[in-house]
Design a protein that fits this description.
alpha/beta; Rossmann fold; 5-stranded parallel β-sheet; 12 helices; 14% strand
Length: 314
């Protein structure tokens, strides 16, 4: 079985899949190498997909493909309708990256709340002493904060476990009142939270969910963290709020356009902590991803039902 793995592997990835070499022929392609990608597409039985969007035009070239397996949960980067029309199954891995993304979200919360990038730069420059007197007025503990989770799936619940152990009060919102303690409507959550963390998929309903009006409900001392999908926040409105002192800080792993253009104004703000869509990317998550991806390949080989299929191939 021929697999097109749309990422550059590390040594641990190669070691993990090496026992399957007698039946699994894996061809790796860096996400920015479109020449190799389009050369390999027609011969691939399975595509292991990460983030580079898979369009209908791409999928139409995948004449042998039986499965697109998303290494992750969100399938918004795959034209699922086109895959269904072409008879290609699309599967994902709900929960496989939950532990890593949850820890990454808390990392961004702490870094933004404690002004970590700014203090790192000052220390390296030799200007960290005497301490900035504003630290005592602006830097906070998570344990003294109210954390609002927008979305309440696997990742959000892990974040809740972590920050609750640190002493935080946790609120959450979802598509309707789920009857769980801490549920609030979105406006109430935004008004009450010191930290707002996003944990929901990108859909037509969630695009620009945090627009200028929503951000205006948040406290000027509040921090917003996004490890889900960039377009859920109106970036222009976020920049205006951060520049205008209507939000204290942001911790962002995802952006409206990825890779982030050099002229994105978020890159020039001192009160923003940035990572390049990698909160999921740990050795532990990759091990879980590969185990599930290899398992679904085995299922194709053995004629068994696939796991976590999200579409109905024709």
């Amino acid at each position: 079985m021929r697999v097109l793995a749309h990422f550059a592997p590390g040594a641990k990835v190669l070691e993990f899949v090496s026992p399957e070499a007698d039946w699994l022929d894996i061809h790796y392609c860096a996400e920015d190498d479109d020449d190799t990608f389009h050369r390999e597409l027609p011969r691939a039985d399975v595509i292991w997909h990460v983030l580079r969007p898979l369009s209908a035009a791409d999928l139409e070239q995948a004449a042998s493909a039986k499965l697109v397996h998303k290494l992750g949960a969100g399938v918004n980067t795959i034209d699922v309708d086109a895959a269904s029309r072409l008879g290609i199954a699309v599967a994902n891995m709900p929960g496989a990256n939950a532990a890593s993304v949850a820890e990454g979200a808390v990392l961004l919360m702490l870094a933004a709340l404690r002004r970590l990038p700014e203090l790192d730069r000052a220390t390296r420059a030799g200007s960290g002493w005497p301490s900035d007197p504003s630290l005592g007025d602006t830097v906070r503990d998570i344990g003294g904060a109210t954390v609002g989770l927008i979305g309440y799936g696997n990742i959000a619940k892990r974040v809740e476990t972590i920050v609750t152990a640190m002493g935080a009060e946790v609120l959450h919102t979802s598509t309707g009142d789920d009857g769980q303690p801490g549920w609030r409507s979105l406006p109430d959550l935004l008004t009450a939270s010191d930290i707002v963390s996003l944990h929901l998929p990108l859909t037509a309903q969630t695009s620009n969910l945090l627009d200028a009006a929503a951000l205006a409900l948040m406290r000027p001392s509040a921090v917003v963290v996004n490890t889900s999908r960039g377009p859920i926040i109106d970036e222009d409105a976020l920049v205006d709020a951060l520049r205008g002192g209507r939000l204290a800080a942001a911790g962002l792993d995802v952006f409206a356009v990825e890779p982030v253009p050099a002229d994105n104004p978020l890159l020039g703000l001192d009160n923003v902590v940035l990572t390049p869509h990698v909160t999921w990317y740990t050795a532990d998550t990759m091990r879980r991803y590969l185990a599930e991806a290899v398992d679904n390949c085995m299922r194709i080989r053995d004629g068994r039902d696939l796991r976590n299929v999200v579409n109905s191939p024709e």
